[in-house]
Automatic annotation (TrEMBL):
Keywords: Signal
One protein family per Pfam: DUF1329
Record Gene3D superfamilies: Lipoprotein localisation LolA/LolB/LppX
Record's protein name: DUF1329 domain-containing protein
CDD domains: LolA_like
Coiled-coil regions listed in the entry: none
Length: 446
């Protein structure tokens, strides 16, 4: 046995014991931009031609586009090729999430309208350059709760573990700094629709600031939001900071309540805490498919597979929610489904941890790393909840975003919609002082 192989064998158990996973070799990293896309997806299409080759994504701005908007539609003249319904769902079961299959079998008139696949995901060249550096330098540590030597791009474009895939989702390309007006809805078991929150949001994805690695302090996402509706919640404001090391740091969240005229630190805006923005019908860790610290679960990388998922669904954001939302599901006529490859990751609750969902599966789009579907199971192992990310083309980034995200409660036959936006506008990053409890107080006193 040569010395290099012996060294690797000696190093491997030490890495496993510490929960650390090393970066890939320079030779492996050469796949990026050749057989793999710059963020790690398979460059080639599939064997039967139903998934095409990635050719750079959708980067042009269509005629008539207004800055920040998702209009016009990217492929307005295309018609669906076929529909998946309760009658033929079994034929396509292997290419559906369990939640979608469940809805087809249990929700009358629910259907999946399948279109030609377009691999529209893209990102700036500097994001790709950072991803290439991360491939050979980044590592996950502390049993996947932290990452090191990663910045600016996909941290693990050639992942080896479930937690690495999850970090790719958390740090996926969503822009550097954006303003958006975020609408959230709840539809109860009777089919009655309620607008639960309208939030004016500024996001600064500090990890994705080009050239900012020298003074990056590990807080990768800076978030500030002000509720403008409904009236009972108007004026509430929130600041949130999220770390790249969930063992050393916990997310920091502060909330201003107009009735109390003070700012308080929120103790727990993660895990299975009911999400107050949607009247508690969904958990905080369901946001965006999965959100917050990964510490409660053992994350297993199961496979990569082909799946029908909502994709290029700008038509949903262009629709009227008063017509689209209601009943047991979103109006199928405004949802475009395509066949894409996804990474499947399974989370199993660790001993001693508590969560209303002891097991969950999440599915990440290979081209964007965004979670596009999820299945959550109860303590008896029965499907309890599901999720769908409706991927739309953002012409201004450029890139694709899972907006809105839907969380479904199958026991109550109810669902929530988060991120029914009209705009997603890149802006200049605001200073660190803007994302503080003190700034919330000063703004409230004006």
């Amino acid at each position: 046995m040569n010395k290099n192989k012996m060294a690797l064998l000696l190093l491997f158990p030490l890495c496993m014991a510490s929960g650390a996973y090393a970066a890939v070799s320079p030779e492996q990293a050469k796949q990026l931009g050749t057989t793999l896309t710059p963020v790690g997806a398979e460059m080639a299409g599939n064997a039967d031609g139903t998934i095409p080759k990635w050719t750079g994504g959708y980067q042009q701005k269509p005629a008539g586009h207004q800055p920040g908007s998702f209009s016009p539609l990217p492929f307005p003249d295309e018609k669906s090729k076929f529909q998946i319904t309760a009658a033929n769902a079994d034929q396509y079961k292997s290419k559906l999430s369990e939640s979608v299959y469940y809805m087809l079998k249990n929700y009358p008139d629910y259907r999946v309208d399948v279109y030609d696949t377009h691999r529209t995901a893209s990102a700036p060249q500097w994001f790709y350059d950072y991803a290439a550096k991360n491939a050979v330098n980044a590592s996950s540590t502390k049993d996947g709760l932290a990452i090191e030597n990663a910045y600016g791009g996909t941290p693990f474009p050639i992942p080896k573990t479930g937690s690495e895939v999850l970090w790719n989702h958390l740090l996926s390309w969503k822009g550097t700094a954006v303003d958006t007006l975020y609408r959230l809805y709840m539809v109860d078991g009777s089919g009655r629709r309620s607008l639960t929150s309208v939030i004016d949001i500024n996001e600064f994805f500090r990890y994705s600031l080009p050239g900012g690695e020298k003074d990056f302090d590990g807080w990768w996402w800076w978030h500030r939001a002000k509720t403008t509706a409904p009236g009972r919640s108007a004026g509430e404001a929130l600041v949130g900071l999220f770390p790249n090391d969930y063992e050393a740091r916990q997310p920091g969240s502060w909330q201003y309540m107009p009735g109390q005229r003070r700012v308080r630190k929120l103790p727990n805006v993660q895990f299975d805490t009911p999400n107050f923005y949607v009247s508690g019908l969904a958990q905080f860790d369901e946001a965006y498919g999965f959100f917050g610290s990964p510490e409660q679960y053992n994350w297993k990388l199961v496979t990569k597979r082909e799946m029908y998922i909502p994709y290029n669904t700008n038509s949903l954001l262009a629709s009227d929610p008063e017509k689209t939302l209601g009943g047991a599901f979103i109006d199928p006529s405004v949802v475009r489904w395509e066949l894409h490859r996804v990474w499947e990751v399974e989370g199993t609750l660790k001993d001693g941890k508590r969560n209303a969902a002891p097991k969950r599966k999440v599915y990440m789009d290979e081209d964007s790393w965004a979670i596009v579907a999820s299945d959550l199971y109860d303590a008896q192992g029965k499907l309890w909840r599901g999720g769908l990310g409706y991927t739309a083309v953002s012409y201004d980034l450029p890139g694709v975003l899972t907006l809105p995200y839907q969380s479904l409660d199958f026991q109550q036959r109810a669902y929530t919609i988060a991120g029914y936006v009209k705009n997603y506008t890149p802006v200049e990053p605001r200073p660190r002082s803007y994302f503080t409890a003190e700034a919330l107080t000063q703004d409230a006193l004006r």
